[in-house]
Design a protein that fits this description.
heterotrimer; A alpha/beta (386); B alpha/beta (410); C alpha+beta (132); B: 410 residues; alpha/beta; 12 helices; globular; C: 132 residues; alpha+beta; 5 helices; 3 strands; 48% helix
């Protein structure tokens, strides 16, 4: 089996698994004052400090959450009382878009979305225009790297523009962290989401980083865990796994992965006419490739690859069983037909050159088969065979 | 078995209400889903996703079975705290156009009370039912508190501090008759005492993983579909879990919760017998050796894995320090960093001076009779030692009524 | 909450725990705190003719820090004059025991107990001399 859907979920790293098994063997509630609890509490605080260092967020608040969706929801709802408008982009994750839609109906506040270019990069001029028209203070939530295309957004510039308009900035760095250098302080944002299972940590854990002076309200209320910003007994084993995975991820050879990705794209591009690579000319995550050619539907590609034991994706994993055209690709100006042919390949720490060869081979075989059939079906060839 | 519990501390762990160790059988069940069988359960495009989805559905069945529920009615969450927040805020907000009154109880877990207080700010009316000195609510008071715009009654099944079991079946019956939704926080009850959502007319139930020897970071909310309970989501996103709780489901943690539920179901009756033996032994030893020890909460309607005692004239935190080899709690783990006496004991009418002397001792799956004996002896020795240096004990022995003294408040 | 080794030492080996005869004319008793607040501290001093504290005893209902503060105070005041003992500030106690901020009130209680014991002794002495 060859797995190349790392952006959906990443196989756990050995380091993370070891850290977790170790943690499960001991126990304690960090809120308890006895020694079992205290030892756990120390462990949690040490891990929190280390994670903050890895993420360039020393001295800022790091809230441990149940994952990226919760972090995003928490970020958007946490400062809801303190902002009067929201600005996102057309390519955000559902947890950001749906949250805004939800609050829009609830509170009647304005929510506007920034356009992206055909390369999938947000249009900064449009952002500035919206910022100047929006009720202040605004909250801007734009992802650091897109999950489907891997396109990296100019968050530093976003933060810069936002500050000029007294706006708060949140960035969803779930896909970026661990694949490109990410520093909370350098990005200049107020809030940042990271997720455990996207970098080879366990599922069910993530974090939201907050600038230490930000005004903020909790989403889940109860105990005083996480400075009162997130009640519930902390999932320490998972967070320790997350930390171990983050440390390992930062040692990954991303140049090697980018080389594999580029090799895949070049090979397919050289063989296929009308081959489109999304965000090709934009800065992209080194592991992600999203492409399409009009003669191959998503279903046919997935089926052919699955038969050869290759797992890739037709887009973001979501709860809907129906395959729907990607809102990200449509936002980039892709036609519906085109979007329905898009395939996402995302590589990770276990990907080998042979995996890329297998994918290339299988995919090209399918392409040539279909292409030949298409060709045979034209009247000209029919005459010839007769 | 791949893994086993390591005793890394010399202490005896008696704080099973705060958290429980993850059962090695649960860890073993989870590991494959962390490693070779990982996969985003929402990926529809390949076998990794299907495998994960199947494992999650199996876990849903295991959880549902323990409370006689339809597996489709189980929503996975990050834990009981989130479940309580989701149940209370979610139901209240969904029905807010029609009904704006909620009934709960003063001894509920902090996250239930905090959710209710937050709803008060949003314009809801909340009735906080008092409890009798035994810690149980009065059903007649509940009946008279229900009014036309009551949308929800939220009463916990087993209290985390004193272990009393509320009359859930009766409460459910009252709620069903009056057309009010009934939510119960079963974090301390699920897997420990028999629960049946149909027989008890429960509409929503909060469930915790790490209180039943499962992993932390996972819990569930039972949300009845017939008759249908609707709620507004707290966490938005991909629309997982019937749209009530978005976020990628953590397959291994779901599997862990399922396995923990399965084990709890299989071992519940024998475990109850075992806990009763531990409880009886402990209580007998303590009360035979020490005078003026008081059991908090009802004597019969209780979960026997929890024993909350007041040791008159000995301050609880000092006692905790004296028995440092025992991991016990002098209050709920969530609030024990603060020095206020427990609001639960206060609600029972336990006077502050006695509330300050209380200790919660929890027994569980890995507690042995030897540990109980050792623990009881350590507590007896320390109480005796501390009473010797307690001015209040001295006065009591001399027949001075402590209440007759004019204490300066400070 | 981590206790300092000094608190633990005083808690495990309390110095001068016990009682003096409260009726004796050379004994002053200070009883401060309240059971409902979780701390009661009884400090007793025996004072000689020269006005020097010869002996001090305590009994305390409270947390480890309260017991340690009381125990420490009995050592600190022995051999001191009433004026010297009365001048002891809670900050000295707190620093010596390395009390965390949430436990500072224990040291304040100990300071109050010294003052109360001295006041009790002096009022007895005054009553005694007025009788004589």
């Amino acid at each position: 089996m060859i797995y190349m859907d790392y952006n959906a979920s990443c196989p756990i790293r050995l380091e993370a698994l070891q850290a977790m098994i170790e943690a499960y063997a001991t126990w304690g509630n960090p809120s308890s004052i006895h020694r079992f609890g205290r030892a756990k509490g120390d462990q949690l605080e040490n891990a929190r400090t280390q994670m903050a260092q890895l993420i360039g967020a020393e001295g800022h608040t790091l809230i441990v959450t149940s994952g990226g969706s919760e972090s995003n929801t928490l970020a958007l709802s946490g400062c809801q009382k303190f902002v009067n408008s929201r600005i996102t982009s057309t390519i955000e994750h559902d947890s950001v878009l749906n949250n805004c839609a939800q609050n829009l109906t609830q509170e009647g506040e304005t929510h506007r979305m920034v356009r992206v270019t055909s390369e999938g990069i947000i249009d900064l001029a449009h952002l500035e225009e919206i910022l100047s028209q929006s009720a202040k203070p605004a909250l801007v939530s734009i992802m650091l790297a897109n999950n489907e295309t891997g396109v990296i957004q100019p968050i530093q510039e976003v933060a810069h523009l936002a500050k000029a308009h007294d706006a708060l900035v949140h960035t969803d760095a779930s896909q970026a962290f661990g694949k490109i250098p990410v520093s909370f302080v350098d990005l200049g944002v107020d809030m940042m989401t990271v997720s455990g299972h996207k970098i080879g940590g366990p599922l069910g854990v993530g974090a939201l980083i907050l600038k230490s002076n930000i005004k903020f309200e909790p989403l889940i209320r109860g105990g005083l865990q996480e400075k009162g910003l997130r009640a519930g007994t902390e999932n320490i084993p998972a967070f320790l796994g997350f930390l171990a995975a983050a440390e390992a991820a930062l040692r990954d050879d991303m140049i090697f992965l980018a080389g594999l990705r580029n090799h895949l794209e070049k090979t397919l591009e050289s063989e296929v006419t009308n081959f489109k690579i999304y965000g090709k000319n934009a800065p992209r995550l080194p592991n992600t490739s999203c492409f399409s050619t009009l003669s191959l539907t998503q279903e046919s590609q997935l089926m052919a690859l699955d038969l050869e034991g290759i797992a890739v994706s037709a887009g973001a994993a979501c709860a809907s069983k129906k395959m729907r055209a990607s809102h990200v690709l449509l936002a980039m100006g892709s036609t519906l037909d085109e979007a329905k042919c898009a395939l996402r390949v995302s590589l990770g720490h276990q990907t080998k050159p042979a995996d890329i060869d297998a994918l290339t081979q299988t995919w090209l075989n399918l392409y040539f088969r279909v292409h030949r059939r298409l060709h045979e079906n034209t009247p000209l060839t029919r005459t010839a065979t007769c | 078995m791949l893994t086993s519990l390591k005793k890394t501390y010399p202490e005896i762990y008696l704080d099973y209400q705060a958290t429980t160790p993850c059962d090695p059988r649960v860890v073993d069940a989870m590991i494959p889903y962390f490693s070779e069988r990982f996969g985003n359960p929402h990926s529809r495009n390949h076998v990794y996703g299907w495998d994960a989805e199947e494992a999650i559905e199996q876990a849903r069945i295991q959880v549902a079975k323990l409370i006689n529920a339809d597996p489709k009615d189980i929503i996975f969450t990050s834990g009981a705290t989130e479940s309580n927040n989701l149940a209370i805020k979610g139901v209240a907000r969904f029905y807010k156009e029609k009904k704006r009154h909620i009934i709960t109880c003063v001894t509920e877990h902090k996250c239930v009370l905090d959710s209710c207080r937050h709803l008060e700010q949003e314009g809801f009316r909340i009735t906080y039912l008092p409890v009798n000195p035994n810690g149980l609510i009065d059903l007649a008071t509940l009946v008279s508190a229900i009014c036309d715009d009551t949308v929800l009654v939220s009463i916990m099944a087993v209290n985390n501090e004193i272990g009393v079991i509320q009359p859930i079946g009766e409460i459910g019956k009252i709620c069903r008759e009056r057309g009010v939704f009934f939510h119960t926080d079963a974090a301390q009850a699920f897997g420990k005492i028999p629960l049946d959502v149909d027989a008890m007319n429960i509409d929503l139930m909060s469930i915790s993983g790490h209180k039943i020897y499962g992993p932390k970071g996972i819990g569930a909310l039972y949300v009845r579909r017939k008759p249908r309970v609707r709620l507004e989501a707290l966490i938005h996103g991909g629309g997982q879990e019937r749209g009530m709780r978005s976020g990628t489901l953590p397959t291994p943690l779901c599997v862990g919760l399922g396995k923990a539920a399965e084990i709890a179901a299989a071992e519940m009756s024998q475990e109850q017998t075992r806990l009763k033996a531990l409880y009886d032994r402990f209580y007998k030893k303590i009360t035979e050796a020490l005078d003026e020890v008081y059991l908090n909460g009802d004597v019969t309607h209780r979960f026997l894995g929890n024993i909350n005692l007041s040791f008159a004239y000995v301050e609880g935190e000092g006692l905790m320090m004296g028995i440092k080899d025992l991991s016990v709690s002098s209050g709920s783990a969530c609030t024990s960093a603060s020095l206020e006496p427990s609001y639960v004991l206060h609600a029972l009418g336990v006077e502050d001076e006695l509330a300050h002397t209380s200790l919660r001792v929890g027994f569980g799956r890995f507690t042995t009779m030897d540990e109980v004996d050792t623990a009881a002896q350590i507590i007896i020795d320390q109480v005796q030692k501390l009473r010797k240096i307690s001015p209040l004990w001295e006065m009591a022995q001399e027949g001075i009524d402590i209440k007759s003294i004019q204490w300066a408040a400070h | 909450m981590a206790y300092s080794s000094k608190v633990i030492d005083h808690f495990e080996n309390p110095r001068n725990a016990g009682s003096l005869d409260p009726k004796a004319t050379d004994v002053g008793t200070g009883l401060v705190g309240a059971p409902a607040c979780g701390d009661v501290l009884k400090l007793q001093i025996r004072v000689n003719e020269a006005g020097i504290i010869q002996e001090a005893k305590f009994k305390t209902f409270g947390c480890g820090s309260a017991i340690a503060s009381s125990s420490l105070v009995t050592e600190m005041i022995r051999g001191k004059t009433l004026d010297e003992a009365g001048a002891i500030k809670n900050t000295v106690i707190a620093q010596e025991l390395e009390l965390p901020p949430v436990k500072i009130h224990c040291s304040m209680l100990a300071e109050d107990a010294i003052k109360a014991a001295i006041a009790d002794y002096l009022s007895k002495k005054e009553a005694g001399s007025s009788q004589a």
